[in-house]
Amino acid sequence: MELLFFGIAKDIVGKSSIDLSKNSSLPKSVEDVKLFLTKKYPDFSKLSSLAIAVNSEYAADDVVLNDGDEIAIIPPVSGG
Amino acid sequence: MELLFFGIAKDIVGKSSIDLSKNSSLPKSVEDVKLFLTKKYPDFSKLSSLAIAVNSEYAADDVVLNDGDEIAIIPPVSGG
Amino acid sequence: MKKTIIEIVKTLNVDVVYKELSDPKSGGICVFVGTVRDFTNNEEVISLEFETYKVMAIKEMQKIANQAIDKWNLNKVVIRHAIGGKGVEEPVVVIGASSGHRDACFTACRYMIDTLKETVPIWKKEVFKNKTVWVSAHP
Amino acid sequence: MKKTIIEIVKTLNVDVVYKELSDPKSGGICVFVGTVRDFTNNEEVISLEFETYKVMAIKEMQKIANQAIDKWNLNKVVIRHAIGGKGVEEPVVVIGASSGHRDACFTACRYMIDTLKETVPIWKKEVFKNKTVWVSAHP
Going by C-beta distance under 8 Å and a sequence separation of 6 or more, which residues neighbour residue A35? Predict the structure, then answer.
């Protein structure tokens, strides 16, 4: 399971991805990912919003995660 | 005094301009021009609208005309 | 730099309009291009023929540009109309506005094409296979 | 013919968009170009830096195009966004719609740029003289 970071999320974490495969306890849901991140990196709590994409689709908090999922951390978008 | 005709007005009159300088009685107002035209060419009455420009500005019926004026007959416009 | 470009031309080059509207104070550019459609009311259109009372058309187009600039604080405006014969897919009018934010350029661009169609002395004849029709001439 | 062109590119060429949107069934083409403004809140902008989650951005842009085509019966759509560094006056996004009548292309074009700014995973960093700011990141 890989976490991808973009924009300010990459600055907060200090890298563009984290491989969680070696972790003892993988997050089981999108909500778990958010809790993991905000606990480890309090700066995530300061953002206007924080969305998660699972396999490149926006995912609600209750979406269940699988081992091979690509999890992207989506801070407030600002294209255009 | 010259009358200019465009679009369907040119088709109705059969030419693109009429020089009224030789006429005995020149139209005194925009309204006179409209009366002159609709009387001589009844097809003008069938148009959706008929506007007159005096020296290339839209002119209301009561605008008074002078000898050297350029009078344009503006049938419904359809640019764009 | 001139703020407005107002022209009546034989051939419209739409590709130049961005360079003309480009401005360091603009975050948005909106361009409308009117083109010749292949069918009108289920009748196949061969071409459109445009004619104009040029001196007055330029004046009226300039008025529209000035009104839009005043109302929406635009940085640049282009209004360019073609005359003569135009075939299917060819451009006949290009209207562009450049502004700080996108609201202004969208609203202004829409206002300018709507007003042009109401006030600018340009006339369009639709050429069909067996007839020609001056658009909007009759009720 | 493909109805939509959806791309994320290093360098935006805005001049090609008309040929891409040209269609015999279209009477109107509306194009919006987002460009880099020289000042934000009275601070001079040196450049903007864009990055994206490309695979997802393309998907989201395609959704927007499909929604607009369904809703306004468009003939063609282009959505093309730039990434990397962009200086003042450079284009960063081009959105275009081509439709039978002008109402549809104006409304659709506005909808598409508004929605892109809300949903497409692209991030913009403003580079000022003495700092950089991720736009919209904080309340």
Answer: A27
Binary contact (D53, A74; C-beta < 8 A): yes
CA quadruple B28, B34, B38, B43: dihedral sign: positive
- Residues A4 and D53 sit within 8 Å (Cβ to Cβ): yes
Domains of chain B: 2-74 (3.10.20.30)
Residue range C24-56, pLDDT digits in tens: 999 999 999 999 999 998 999 999 999 999 999
Q: Is A78 in the D-facing interface, judged by CB distances under 8 Å?
A: yes
CB–CB contact C105 D32 (8 Å): yes
Give pLDDT tens digits for A9-66: 999 999 999 998 877 788 999 999 999 999 999 999 999 999 999 999 999 999 999 9
Question: With contacts defined as CB-CB under 8 Å, which chain C residues touch D92?
Answer: none
- Report all structural domains of chain C as residue ranges with CATH numbers, in order of start: 3-131 (3.90.1170.40)
Which DSSP state fits D100?
S
The structure's pTM equals 0.96
Q: Name which of D31, D39, D42, D135 to mutate to probe chain C: the one with the most chain C Cβ atoms within 10 A of its Cβ.
A: D31
